[in-house]
Design brief:
This protein has 327 residues and is of the alpha/beta class. It folds into 2 domains: 102 residues, Enolase-like, domain 1 (2-Layer Sandwich), CATH 3.30.390.10; 199 residues, Enolase-like C-terminal domain (TIM Barrel), CATH 3.20.20. It is 34% helix and 23% strand. It contains 11 helices and 14 strands. The strands form 3 sheets. It has an 8-stranded parallel beta sheet with strand order 5-6-7-8-9-10-11-12. The protein has a 3-stranded antiparallel beta sheet with strand order 1-2-3. A hairpin with a 2-residue loop joins strand 1 and strand 2. The longest helix has 18 residues. The two termini are 21 Å apart.
Amino acid sequence: MTYRLSVRHTPYRLAGTFSISRGSRTVADTLVVTIAGEGLTGRGECVPYARYGESLDGVRTQIEAIRPAVEEGLGRALLQRSMPAGAARNAIDCALWDLEAKRQGCRVWELAGLPAPEPVETVYTLSLDTPERMATAAKANADKPALKLKLTGDGDLDRVTAVREHAPAARIIVDANEAWRPEHLDRFLPALADLGVAMVEQPLPADRDEALRGYDSPVPVGADESCHDRASLDALVGKYRVVNIKLDKTGGLTEALALRKAARERGFEIMVGCMMASSLAMAPAHLVAQGARFVDLDGPLWLAEDVEPPLSIDGVRISPPAPALWG
């Protein structure tokens, strides 16, 4: 059987400006891979991320390079050995899962030998801004059970204090996106514990996080940029208590499920995150998010438009994807 692979750039307008310590954006740029054969089509979406040296053109080139093998029937197992972890492999891997489920007449979780997924509750992210503007955003979203705050270093305690004042009941996690310095740990972490922060994500740069080794943090610290796939885990022991699994980092659902299993066996708690993308990217991540302590799959909530059909999201409660979307 010969398959046909196609890849297209699909931008999504955001409902507002989304800012983190590395910059701001108003558009989510995605690449969608489709693999078609036997009258069926599998789809997968990825987000090239400059932080990891990726670009739209570069990831497209990676996908095009492996097109002949995919069209000749390359399977998921060989794909893992043929491409590095990253956005390109993610889109292809998720498309292959989707296609195989359609061919077998079942759902992806059945293929994976997993129980049927339940709805998950995502955090809602507050974009990096001044304490005053983040307070306003917190007040507007105070009904949400969990908020994730984007931080940047100096001034962060004012930001978190302002949000806590206007969202007193919310579970709060914070994400510095590698923007803190080692001296911020002693300055910020005890105060964040007093403010009831549940987790601090990637405070230090991934290549300069040794200050975390053996550090007795009063708040659990999570690895994002420091954790990509199973090969990352050894270096995280003694520095982090939580690992953030994102399919664009792991290179797809196949490695994401394997990373989740290995991380749990090593005693890490699980967070499942996302890039800014559509429901098509969140659908396979929803499966990985089952049983996770922290779920951050709010990408579609930031979009002015979404893929059709989108995930069913009631407030911040995300239901499993319908077959027409993925899986």
